[in-house]
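Amino Acid Chain and Its Fold in Token Form
===========================================
Structure side: the spatial fold of the chain, written down as a series of whole-number tokens.
Position: the record begins directly beneath this header, with no further notes in between.
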Amino acid sequence: MSRLDHFINRMTSQRACLNFAAARTAQMPGPVFELGLGNGRTYHHMVEIMPDRDIFVFEHAVASNPASTPPDDMLVLGDVYETLPQALERFGATASLIHADLGGHNLEKNDAFARAVSPLIEPLLAKGGLMVSSDRMYFETLMEMDLPEGAVQSACFIYG
């Protein structure tokens, strides 16, 4: 599969999974967490499909398009190994939806990173909440769910 096809599958799947998760958690209280801002395309989509939800963005350094940059009070800057435990102290297990697109182009490194951050992400999710990720995650209690229509296997993952 070409890199272009892989990218298209990932973006199509990400949109399908986020739309599904946003609808499924629409009546849940609690914030939404976006782990990794990048250029802000996914954050912008999340704001569009969840306009009345508090979406907190976790990012090491902001480099997004200005039109896709969250307000300062919704931005958590720093290393996820520090900011995720701080978020647990601040919010507890209240996130109704968490989205993570933290990996890069090295699949081995992505997998190692997913293994390292999974234990930091899992306690943030409220009971009944959903986790959407571009990488396979390694949770103790959250289970991988079937993907919604329009998503491509292994291009995105949903846990609940």
Q: What stands out?
A: Strands lie at 32-35, 55-59, 75-77, 95-100, 125-133, 157-159. The chain has a mean pLDDT of 95. Residues 3-24 form the longest helix (22 residues).
